[in-house]
Write a structure and sequence with these properties.
The chain has 136 residues and is mainly alpha-helical. Helix content is 71%, strand content 4%. The protein has one domain (5-135). It has a three-stranded antiparallel beta sheet, with helices on one face. It is elongated. The two termini are 23 Å apart.
Length: 136
């Protein structure tokens, strides 16, 4: 049942967290150097774990409860990553040199949105299975 809608949402999360951090700059420092995910080891690791958790959740389609839990863990990790970006952006604005925030800082928000949509679809499937079991 990989063709379910939550698998599509999780595939979008994989594409967002595996590809876009390398294409979109996270921020620009005071010397006009653009910082990407591969420049910061912790950020790269977090995006890697987000990608891995989404891939694991895609292939756990037979166990919807565990898939739901893995998606929640993935959301928590994305919130941690978003918190780090907010902290970093606040630290950037206090610099003496002018620096800019990049569009890559918004990637965890987009991932969280798709994870929430996937969890809603998983919950809908679980409710459907429970209702069918009740009729038997």
């Amino acid at each position: 049942m990989i063709q379910r809608i939550q698998s599509i949402y999780l595939l979008v999360v994989v594409l967002i967290s595996a590809g876009l951090p390398f294409l979109l700059p996270l921020w620009t420092d005071g010397q006009a150097n653009q910082v990407y995910a591969q420049n910061e080891l912790m950020i790269l690791g977090c995006f890697g774990v987000v990608t891995l958790l989404a891939l694991i959740a895609i292939f756990m389609y037979k166990n919807r409860k565990n898939q739901f839990v893995i998606n929640r863990l993935n959301m928590i990790l994305n919130l941690f990553l978003l918190g780090f970006f907010v902290y970093r952006s606040l630290a950037l604005s206090g610099e003496s040199n002018i620096s800019e925030k990049g569009i890559g800082m918004l990637l965890p928000i987009v991932s969280i949105v798709f994870l929430v949509l996937a969890n809603k679809a998983i919950k809908k499937d679980e409710d459907l299975v429970k209702s069918v079991d009740r009729l038997r």
